[in-house]
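Exercise 7b. C-alpha cells:
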C-alpha cells in the first residue's frame, strides 16, 4: 500500500531510502499488508511506521481505485527475505495538517528513510527508481488535483 501526503502548499512528501544516494533514491511511503488488514489501514500503518505521522494530522483526499503493479528487474536480489518478484498496491492521498516536528523517521523497526522533503507532484517520477516510474506517472495523473495550495 502507498500514501501520497500533501501539505497545505500542495507539495507531496518524498523520503530518501535509507542507505541510498543519487537521483533515483526517493519514494513515497509504501509497503505490504499484514494479515487481516484493509488496504487503507495498511497504508496508514506504513505511513506511521515510516514517518511517525498519525491520523490525527491527516484528512483523506482520494484513492486510486485500481491496484497498481511493478516488477523488480531481473537479477535484482530480494531484500529482507522477500520471495516475490514485485508489488501490487493500492494508493491513497491525504492532506497533512501538521509541521516538520511531527515527522519521526525512526518510529518503528528498521528505518526506511534517511531524510525527507516536500516536492512538486509532477516531478516525482524522475526521482524514483526506474522500475517504479510507471506507478508514479499514474499517481501524478490520479492525484495532481490535490497538489494545489490550500488556504
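Sequence design result:
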Amino acid at each position: 500500500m502507498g500514501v501520497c501526503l500533501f501539505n497545505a502548499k500542495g507539495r507531496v512528501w518524498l523520503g530518501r531510502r535509507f542507505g541510498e544516494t543519487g537521483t533515483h533514491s526517493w519514494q513515497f511511503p509504501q509497503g505490504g499488508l499484514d494479515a487481516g488488514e484493509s488496504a487503507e489501514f495498511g497504508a496508514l500503518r506504513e505511513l506511521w511506521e515510516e514517518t511517525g505521522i498519525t491520523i490525527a494530522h491527516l484528512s483523506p483526499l482520494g484513492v486510486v481505485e485500481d491496484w497498481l503493479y511493478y516488477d523488480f528487474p531481473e537479477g535484482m536480489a530480494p531484500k529482507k527475505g522477500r520471495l516475490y518478484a514485485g508489488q501490487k498496491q493500492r494508493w491513497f492521498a491525504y492532506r497533512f495538517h501538521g509541521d516538520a516536528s511531527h515527522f519521526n523517521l525512526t518510529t518503528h523497526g528498521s528505518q526506511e528513510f534517511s531524510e525527507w522533503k516536500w516536492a512538486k507532484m509532477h516531478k516525482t517520477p524522475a526521482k524514483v527508481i526506474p522500475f517504479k516510474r510507471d506507478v508514479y506517472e499514474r499517481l501524478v495523473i490520479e492525484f495532481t488535483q490535490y497538489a494545489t495550495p490550500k488556504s
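Instructor comment: The mean pLDDT is 92. The two ends are 29 Å apart (CA to CA).
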